[in-house]
From TrEMBL:
Record keywords: ATP-binding, Nucleotide-binding, Transport
Coiled-coil features, chain-numbered ranges: none
Domain ABC transporter: 2-237
Organism: Lysobacter korlensis
Pfam family, one: ABC_tran
CDD domains: ABC_drug_resistance_like (cd03264)
GO molecular function: ATP binding
Assigned protein family: Belongs to the ABC transporter superfamily.
Name of the protein described by the UniProt record: ABC transporter ATP-binding protein
Record-linked InterPro entries: AAA+_ATPase, ABC_transporter-like_ATP-bd, ABC_transporter-like_CS, P-loop_NTPase
Length: 297
């Protein structure tokens, strides 16, 4: 659906935001997971034709199977693209209905009746129909993000890019938002960029982990988790001994449970007495990949 080959980008300040990024993104939900500063937004903006890479290429499959060159054929890409940027701002004094109508005009929906139908359909789909007359300034964070999805879906895009959409949403709003994305992902390619591991676990059949401009892993979450089987160990330690464990073992994560640190350690064998095997999860995969990269650097 979307083929990305060796995309690289160095900003004027010397930051290597993208370092030969290669990815194959199929239809459905694709999770792009990485910490802040990993390069996710740089990649999303490049795919959304908003900035140029230094080198590399990207191709999007068009409606009749044709190959659209993302970097050269920007207008063709934009016709197939819905984008919800990280800093999606709305006009606070305008109603959702009026602003969506306005965006629809900009998208080129010139036929008045058709436009009305589209706007109504989208407001229903993102569950904002009852709130359509309200000013956007009165919307909650989750409602604003759902409005952001409605505008991204204008013009029936084949590729939808959402950049860090769940940051700042409470758990209920987040769930609602992710369910909406999953529904959309049944028909088109949706790239969900996030630093929240659960966003990917709950929702994405395929994913990539990215950090410091590099793709560290790509594939199915279940396969990546399976590959760590019998190599993750848990122990409750004390705060005083924690640095010692960190020096001796590959500590993936530390969580406070009842005030005591519980560590997850990556090791082919039981690291030492007192460690118990745990079933790995995507968070273990994520931290293991980041650790490996840090070690290699
Ligand atoms: P993410 O979305 O994963 O947080 P970004 O793509 O925003 O990552 O940033 C990747 C790196 O590039 C960061 O170190 C960031 O500070 C830097 N960066 C992003 N945009 C610019 C820019 N316009 N100019 C200079 N550096 C930038």
């Amino acid at each position: 659906m979307l083929t990305i080959r060796e995309l690289s980008k160095t900003y004027a300040n010397g930051v290597h935001a993208l370092n030969r990024v290669t990815l194959d993104i199929p239809r459905g939900m694709f999770g792009l997971l990485g910490p802040n500063g990993a390069g996710k937004s740089s990649l999303m903006r490049t795919l959304a034709t908003l900035q140029e890479p230094d080198s590399g290429e990207a191709f999007l499959e068009g409606p009749s199977g044709e190959r659209i060159d993302v970097l050269r054929d920007k207008d063709a890409v934009r016709r197939q693209l819905g984008y919800l940027p990280q800093d999606f701002g709305v006009y606070p004094k305008v109603s959702a209905e009026d602003l969506l109508e306005h965006f629809a005009v900009l998208k080129g929906l010139t036929d008045r009746r058709q436009r009305r139908e589209t706007v109504e359909g989208l407001l229903q789909q993102v569950n904002l129909w009852d709130a359509r007359k309200r000013k956007l300034g009165t919307y909650s964070g989750g409602m604003r993000q759902r409005f952001g999805i409605a505008q991204a879906l204008l013009g029936d895009p084949r590729l939808v890019i959402v950049d860090e959409p769940t940051a700042g949403l409470d758990p209920e709003e987040r769930n609602r938002f992710l369910n909406l994305l999953a529904e959309i992902g049944e028909n088109v390619a949706v790239i969900l960029s996030t630093h929240i591991v659960e966003d990917v676990t709950d929702l994405c059949p395929t994913m990539a982990i990215m950090n410091r401009g590099q793709v560290l892993l790509t594939g199915k979450p279940a396969d990546a988790i399976g590959a760590l089987q019998a190599q993750v160990w848990r122990k409750q330690v004390t705060k005083a001994t924690l640095p010692d464990y960190e020096a001796r073992h590959t500590v993936l994560s530390t969580r406070l449970v009842g005030g005591h640190p519980v560590i997850h350690v990556f090791s082919a064998q039981r690291p030492e007495e007192g460690f118990e095997a745990v079933a790995p999860d995507l968070e273990d995969v994520y931290f293991q990949r980041l650790r490996l990269q840090a070690k290699a650097a």
